[in-house]
Design a protein that fits this description.
The protein is mainly alpha-helical. It contains 6 helices and no strands. α1 packs parallel to α5, α2 crosses α5 and α3 packs parallel to α6.
Length: 185
């Protein structure tokens, strides 16, 4: 996978983190925050450092979510297919040496897994800070609206978790099947 793809992947993860970080900042400091009038030139000048910050946040959150996922669910899915880590890396290394096309497909699948995993752990934080901000807002029917928003967030958490698990399963099975087929040729 090209460096551009990895960059975009980490920016996507970083955007999720930026949402809850900004929300947290607003929760804790929103009452003292005043936003000045900003012209377009300033926005353009600050957009490049902002992208760099989002990228770095994406790197950090990708590592944190990877460690959390391993601690919470272990490598159960991978080990069900391969038995252990060594067999998995043996298959991956073999496929990468034998087929550039398979390697590209595997990198794309791994990228989707990382994005899903990264957002899976960020949605609860976005949910938490969105709920707090809504409680502090002037919306008339806050409780019913917050319940609706939280229901949507819980649904999103389930969807991201399900997609993450299923994408892993499909990817690991594809790696195993392709390895089994190609290794004998």
């Amino acid at each position: 996978m090209g460096m551009t793809n990895v960059f975009v992947e980490l920016v996507i993860i970083g955007i999720g983190a930026s949402i809850w970080i900004i929300e947290a900042f607003l929760v804790f400091f929103g009452s003292v925050l005043s936003i000045p009038n900003v012209n377009e030139e300033i926005i353009i000048i600050f957009s490049f450092p902002t992208i760099a910050i989002v990228y770095v946040i994406g790197i950090v959150l990708d590592r944190i979510s990877d460690n959390l996922a391993t601690r919470l669910w272990g490598n159960k899915c991978r080990n069900e297919v391969f038995g252990d880590e060594q067999n998995y890396y043996k298959a991956i290394t073999f496929l990468e040496m034998k087929s550039e096309r398979i390697t590209i497909k595997l990198e794309y699948a791994k990228s989707r897994i990382r994005i899903l995993r990264g957002w899976l752990f960020q949605i609860p934080l976005i949910q938490l800070f969105t709920s707090i901000l809504l409680l502090k807002s002037i919306i008339v029917n806050k409780i019913s609206f917050i319940l609706l928003i939280n229901s949507v967030f819980f649904l999103l958490i389930f969807i991201f978790w399900f997609a993450w698990i299923k994408t892993q399963e499909t990817t690991f099975k594809a790696i195993k099947n392709q390895y089994d087929i190609i290794k004998d040729y």
